[in-house]
Amino acid sequence: MKLESIADYYGEWNIPNTDDKFYGKILQEKNGSYLLEIMGNFSNAPPSNLIHKHDFINGITTNGKKITLTGVIEHSKNCSYPGSIVTKYNFNEAFIGYHFNQNESIKFDAISIPVNYLNKWMGIDPFTVKPDVNNLTMVYTTPEILKISLDTVGLNIEIKSEYTCNSNPSGYNIKEDSFIKLYKNKAEDFNELLNSINWLITFLSVCYYQPIQLPYISCHSNSQEDISYVLNRPIEYNNTNSSLFLVTYTNIKNDFVRILQWWFENKEKLKVIGYIFKSLLKVDYAIPLEVRFSQSIQMVETFHRKFKNNEYIPKDAIEPYILCLKNVLKKEKTKKLNNKLIGKIKYALTSKMKYAYEPSLMQRLKELITHIPQNILTQTIITDDKFITNICSLRNYYTHWDQIEGSPINEQKIYDYAETLRLILIINLLKEMRFADDNIINIFKRNKTVKFNRSLIWPEY
Questions:
Q1: Residue closest to 412 by CA, chosen among 288, 289, 297
Q2: Is the peptide bond before 143 cis (omega within 30 degrees of 0)?
Q3: Residue 247's beta-bridge partner residues?
Q4: DSSP string, 388-446
Q5: Using CA atoms, how far apart are residues 417 and 411, in angstroms rounded to an integer?
Q6: Which backbone phi and psi does 10 adopt, to 5 degrees?
Q7: Between the CA atoms of 422, 424, 430 and 432, what dihedral angle is there, to the nearest 10 degrees?
Q8: What pTM value is reported for the model?
């Protein structure tokens, strides 16, 4: 099912299993999100300050299309003389093609999504040109459907492309539609399928090196016609640039299933650092440089905690010393010294000792840098003897306002440090995703002058 927009869907709307119906339509706001506007009010009450919520609202358009809105909440209400009420509602989601009454009923056999430039990412060109004596002949070969089974997580994925050709006075217009279909071995709760497809899109966003936003999702069931799903949220207008892929399917074709399998197996661990992906893929250069640098440091520490050894000293080895410290301070209290001061000392020392087993920022950075291939490392400012020291000093300065020793660090240097920290994170993420060094070197050789402003020095490999 092709779906561009649900704006201006006119029809009758009602709460499931009730008789009251109101005429109205779906409006689209300037930011791309939607509102339902009806002549009346589902609460059957006069205008008031009460906010009314409804799990489901069903509608049927003038052309017979069924729509279910979920998570509906009153947005605004206007009453005009002699008593006409116009109410607007926010809603979370819209299902086009079916009426649902309860969450348990929303199950599908499969869902699919459109993705721009998928064929280009996969390196597929279905057209070949055959020269003739007097003209050129273009031959079209239907692309094969790529089928992937991720057995350990029980997922099946299909990647399919379709082409349409329309003639016009100036020639032919060829349009590509590429889809990814995801399903399990039996009908699955929609939210589970939605989480899986979103996680797959996060993986593709890393490969595309730009966030991918879904316009809609098609839901498939053996017992009913296809249903379209729209998540009601503001549209982030971004121009997907197919020439700036970080990783293409061709780069990882031989390891694609293994990499994707790892991605889904580590979903819970990766989701905790989900904000890192957004920061890596869509850098906001408008925010103050100091804030962006501090965010990069936070991402480094969070990533290291999740994927590397977070015990510089075995945690169990620290606990006896904490207990010993508490006993010493307890004895000091019995000497009738300043008990309030002793309490403060006890709190300060034990709270610091509690996390003494964790590595410092300097140790975390040193370990992450060891995973960078030498062919990339030697071309970056990471080789500067003072790189890690300066990073730690800057972090202490922006966090605690500690004095920076030596010559001051200028803004350009701070900018380069923030970009280089992003580089370190991306390489370590790719390494965790089981990318081979040769692949990583190739990726950064192709992208170094485009994606990492000044974080890579320009001499050739």
A1: 289
A2: no
A3: none
A4: HHHHHHHHHHHHH-PPPPSSPPPHHHHHHHHHHHHHHHHHHHHHHTT--HHHHHHHHHH
A5: 10
A6: -90, 150
A7: -120
A8: 0.79
**The dihedral formed by the CA atoms of 94, 98, 104 and 106, expressed in degrees to the nearest 10:** -70
- On whether the CB atoms of residues 112 and 228 are closer than 8 A, the answer is no
Strand partners, 231: 93
pLDDT 10s digits, 144-169: 888 999 987 888 999 888 777 776 66
Lookup: tokens for 57: 């609202």
pLDDT, tens digit (0-9, with 9 covering 90-100), for 56-115: 899 999 888 999 999 899 888 888 766 678 889 999 999 999 998 865 578 899 999 988
Identify which of 263, 113, 111 has the alpha carbon closest to the alpha carbon of residue 193: 111
Give the integer Cα–Cα distance in Å for 461 and 452. 16
Residue 302 burial by Cβ neighbours in a 10 Å radius (0-12, 13-18, 19+): middle
Helical (H) or strand (E) element with 451 = helix 437-451
Give Cα separations from 111 to 148, 197, 228, 382 (angstroms).
Answer: 15, 8, 9, 45
* Residues 63, 96 contacting (CB under 8 angstroms): no
